[in-house]
Structures are given as structure tokens and as C-alpha cells.
Amino acid sequence: MKYTVTVGGREFEVEILGSEVRVNGARQEAELREVPGTPLAYLRTSRSAKTFVVTRDQDGWVVALGGERWPVTVLDERTRVARAAGDYRASREAHGVVRAPMPGMVLRLEVAVGDRIRQGAGLVVLEAMKMENEIRSPGAGVVRAILVEAGQAVEKGAPLMELAPQG
Q1: In a structure prediction context, what are the per-residue pLDDT tens digits for the chain, which is 167 residues long?
Q2: What is the reported pTM?
Q3: CA 124, CA 108: separation in Å to the nearest integer?
Q4: Residue 2 region by backbone torsions, left for phi larger than 0, else alpha for psi between -120 and 50, else beta
Q5: Which residues contact 154 (CB under 8 A, 6 or more apart)?
Q6: Domains (range + CATH), the chain
Q7: Which 3 state secondary structure label does DSSP give 39?
Q8: Long-range contact set of residues 79-88: C-beta below 8 Å, sequence gap at least 24
Q9: b/e for 126-136, b at 16 or more Cβ within 10 A?
Q10: Edge-first strand listing for the sheet containing 153-154
Q11: Contact 152, 105 (CB under 8 A)
Q12: What are phi and psi of 91, to 5 degrees?
């Protein structure tokens, strides 16, 4: 299973395959155990062994080790993609640029320059991890410019199109 793990603001891609773990592609043997009845966890890797405190908070967990505390969030791949697809509104800049919420391939454009659009109208469909994700309009307006074409690969945050207010 693949996960995106964020520790203190740093993001890691983690894949778990039995006792083998890959962190950002680097293979490691690892074992993680909870200490029953306590907030302690024990982690043994091929390089080290550590015991640390793990507590839940509203956003995930907090890990405490050696007098320091780090916020930790863990998202499985399916949840991460679903959230990214649903967060298109947050990726729109105030000046009207609609940006890709995730890396992917532009499958098709659903609008043309000059089209009047309503809030929620489909703008572009991205394929990411074999799933189609429709990016919708964050508000009513007019398509001012289209900055991508079908078949083009885009990175997270790449500008897709510019919208202007209706008027």
C-alpha cells in the first residue's frame, strides 16, 4: 500500500510491502510496534531503533522524540487523490488562474476560449493514477485563455486556464 506521510511539513512517499518499506523509493527493512497500554511506539529499521510517543490530534498524530514534537499526517493513495480532486477550489488564484490540483495528463478540455461558464461547470479532465478527475469552475465567468492541450502532462500547481468575471 502507498501512503503520503507528512512529518513536520516535509512530505514522504511511503510504500509498505510486508516488512519491506520504501521511503521516497529507497528500500528499508522496518518493524513498527505499539507498546500496549501506553502512547509509546517502537520503530526498528535496518539503520536504527527508536521508541517515541505518539498522540492523536485533530489533523493526524503528533510524534515526540528527544524533546521535540512533529505533527504527522498519513494519507493513503486513494484518499490523497480524492482530496486533491475535491480541492480544486483552493487551487484557484484570486486573479483567475485555475491550476492543476495534482500531477497528471490532460485528457480533454470541456470549454473553449470565450465560453461563458457557471460555477461548477466542467473545465478540464485530468488523468492521475488511472483515474479521471474533472476540474470544475470555482465560479461563474468567461474563459479568457486555455494554457494546456489534450495529451499534455502537467505538474501539481501548473496553470490550466484563465477565467475572467462575467460582464
Answers
A1: 888 888 888 889 999 887 788 999 999 888 889 999 999 999 998 889 999 999 987 777 899 999 999 898 888 877 777 666 655 444 433 337 888 888 899 999 999 999 988 877 889 999 987 788 888 887 788 899 999 999 999 998 889 998 888 76
A2: 0.48
A3: 6
A4: beta
A5: 100, 103, 104, 105, 106, 126, 148, 160
A6: 2-77 (3.30.700.30), 90-164 (2.40.50.100)
A7: coil
A8: 80/4, 81/128, 81/129, 81/131, 81/133, 84/128, 84/133, 84/156, 85/131, 85/133, 85/134, 85/135, 88/135, 88/136, 88/138
A9: bebeeeebebb
A10: 131-136, 122-128, 104-109, 153-154
A11: yes
A12: -90, 0
**Alpha helical stretches, state H, 56-160:** 77-86
Locate cell 514522504: which residue? 12
What the block records as the C-alpha cell of 29 is 527493512
- Torsion sign, CA atoms 93, 95, 96, 98: negative
Residue whose cell numbers read 512517499: 13
Cell reading at 45: 529499521
**Burial of 95 from C-beta contacts in 10 A (0-12 / 13-18 / 19+):** exposed
Please give the full DSSP string across 113-139, using - where no structure is assigned. TT-EE-TT-EEEEEEETTEEEEEE-SS
> Distances from the Cα of 22 to the Cαs of 2, 16, 25, 88, 117, in angstroms?
9, 7, 5, 29, 44
